[in-house]
Amino acid sequence: MAVTLAIQALVSMATFTVPVLAPVALPELGGSIALIGLFVALIYLGAMVSSLLSGSWILRYGAIRISQVCLLLCGLGLSIAAAGQLWCLVLSALALGAGYGPVTPASSHILARTTPRHLMGLMFSLKQTGVPIGGVLAGMLVPSLVGVAGWRGALLVAALACVLMAVIAQYVREGLDDDRNAQVSQARRDPFKPLRMIFAMPRMRNLALCSLLFGAMQLCLTTYLVSYLTEDYGLALVSAGVILALTQGAGVVGRLLWGWVADHWLEPRRLLPLLALLMAISSLLTAAFTQSWPMALVVAVSMLFGATAIGWNGVYLAEVARLAPAGLAGQYTGGTLFFTYFGVVAGPPLFAGVTQLSQSMASGYLLFGALMLLIALLLWRFAGTASVRGDPG
């Protein structure tokens, strides 16, 4: 758990580092801050492809070895960005995406082998806290590094941290990669096999398709909340940033809480529609914000939004691993993340388009709240159908 959490946090920090540095670096490079949206989209496009291909790589080379390669790719991506040319950012984003995509399938493969089934929700959720922890590390450490070594130096220090973590992971590789099989065929021979596997299993297919909107909702929350609170609600930038930080913190707590609930109280197939419903309610309430709302209520709604829209991942990934045949959790996770990352890529532009047409960010949260309500109803129906058929928990 410690190794997978550290790897997840370092890779996540790497993807956040360039956006954190953007206000300092882009003026020097001659680019506008709007380019950061394209940079993030390219990261997740790369992650879509690499997560889809990662299942066979994990089986062939081992989850830790693939995680080490991911860390080195992230270090390479940060080093390329440090070259200080706008065109380098394209290569940087693609390298970061290639490194980001396989990390979650690799860690899921390890945890599926080593975690008792009655603890899968909590352990997968704990592992997934590495993503917001990486964001916190980037936000806290990278600006300080800029003050000491400049933005290029900060990128290189973050790259070095990824390389060091890859070296540290070597010490546990032999024990955790003991199930690797060199006879497994190369993923490039059949890159769409994970998708066919997922569509051949109705419950896995339903989860994967619903995760598309889950991923979109998460990115729309974190991408636009500060702008919405400053432009529509009228908060100062610093105050809006504090609310975003509280929202991210609620996401960390939510991941652990929902994991515990899934293990001890409400099985994942029942919990996921409830989380979708709470996301829908939170998004619709966010769309209703006006300056007459008390600050405490705005904070409470934002934290509920974060606890659900950021906190769902661990329960979802644990359910994917539980449904996957023995030894194939990484392959199925990589296939389902293809849909999740597609939602991450497509969601924010759709949100922005709706906002542009209506001249109000509230309409974006209204649309996504309505869509998430539909997803909640579909997931609840899927869960009921599985119960009638007698499918396992």
UniProtKB/TrEMBL annotation:
Keywords: Membrane, Transmembrane, Transmembrane helix
Transmembrane segment boundaries: 33-59, 71-96, 149-172, 206-227, 233-258, 270-289, 295-317, 329-350, 362-380
Gene3D superfamilies from the UniProt entry: MFS general substrate transporter like domains (1.20.1250.20)
Keyword hit for Oxidoreductase: no
PROSITE patterns hit by this protein: MFS
Protein origin, superkingdom: Bacteria
Any one Pfam family match given in the protein's UniProt record, by short name: MFS_1
Keyword Transmembrane helix attached: yes
Every Major facilitator superfamily (MFS) profile domain range: 1-387
PANTHER family cross-referenced by the UniProt entry: BLL3282 PROTEIN
Protein's name according to its UniProt entry: MFS transporter
Organism (species): Pseudomonas sediminis
